[in-house]
Amino acid sequence: MVGDLAHICNRGVEKRRIFNDSSDYQRFVENLFLLNNQDGKIRTIKNIFDKAKPVKREQLVEVLKWSLLPNHYHLLLYEVVEGGILEFTKRLGNAFTKYFNTRNEGRSGYLFQNRAKIVPITGDRQYLYIPFYIDINPLDLIFHDRKSISIGDNKKALDFLKTYRWSSFKDYFGKGGTETIVNKNLFYELFSSKPETYEKDLLELSTSQVDKFWTGP
After folding, report:
1. pTM of the model
2. Is the model's pLDDT at 213 over the cut of 50?
3. Is the pLDDT of residue 170 over 80?
4. Considering the domain boundaries, does residue 166 fall inside one?
5. In this model, does residue 13 exceed pLDDT 50?
6. Residues 6 or more apart whose Cβ sits within 8 Å of residue 43
7. Which of 18, 93, 145, 205 is the most buried (most CB within 10 A)?
């Protein structure tokens, strides 16, 4: 329904990589923008993330958070039109599978393990933890055990998240570059937060607490 929130996640079949290089990541990121249009995919244009030259769209969803790792992805979506979350999620999976199979000549069939998991955000605990979970997910790339990150590692973790290219965190707190994908104002409104407190809360909240509420594949 319009106004619904959901955590979307999926991973490669047999946990295989779905992003082999920066071109794969970039294609998925561009699709987060180009496929979010009611009339279908917007034709690929140069500098699609240029804020000075906004691209006109009739969106299916508002993307609030996203993060990509080698074999899976996470999204936090807000439904703008009836059925928008399901339609957008299907478009992402189908389009990227077609791209991936075409790019890797001779490959065919499924890329993802199953249909994307769409988890409605309804409870207070989900509101509290899911945004943090999506944001800290890339820390798996630099910490052997994300659940045992010490206070002394907080700066290293935060610096990494602010510069990690394949996540929306950089668009909230780093140098960004793809800010037009996400609706930051809506996120802060819906989650009763603001920039100066969210970053502080992220550091104070232990990752072991966040992982208790994992709804990933």
Report:
1. 0.92
2. no
3. yes
4. yes
5. yes
6. none
7. 18
Burial class (CB in 10 A: 0-12, 13-18, 19+), 197: exposed
Cα gap 147→211, rounded to integer Å:
8
Which 8-state DSSP code applies to residue 84?
Answer: H
Strands of 61-69's sheet, edge to edge? 61-69, 72-79, 5-11, 117-120
CA-to-CA dists, residue 195 to 19, 157, 166, 184, 201, angstroms: 30, 17, 20, 9, 10
Domain count of the chain?
A: 1
40: left (phi over 0), alpha (psi -120 to 50) or beta: left
Contact criterion met (CB below 8 Å) for 151 and 211: no
Q: Within a domain: residue 13?
A: yes
Query: pLDDT of 92-123, one tens digit each?
Result: 999 999 999 999 988 999 999 989 999 999 98
Model confidence at 207, in pLDDT bands (50, 70, 90)? Answer: very low
For 11, the 3-state DSSP assignment is: strand
Indicate which CATH number applies to the domain containing 166. 3.30.70.1290
Q: Note whether residue 74 is domain-resident.
A: yes
Q: What is the full DSSP assignment across 142-206?
A: T-S-GGG--GGGHHHHHHHHHH-TTBTHHHHHS--S-GGGB-HHHHHHHTT--HHHHHHHHHHS-
Q: Read off the amino acid at residue 169.
A: F
Would you say 96 and 108 are in contact if contact means Cβ atoms under 8 Å apart?
Answer: no
Residues of the domain holding 80:
5-211
Return the residue matching tokens 């999506």: 134
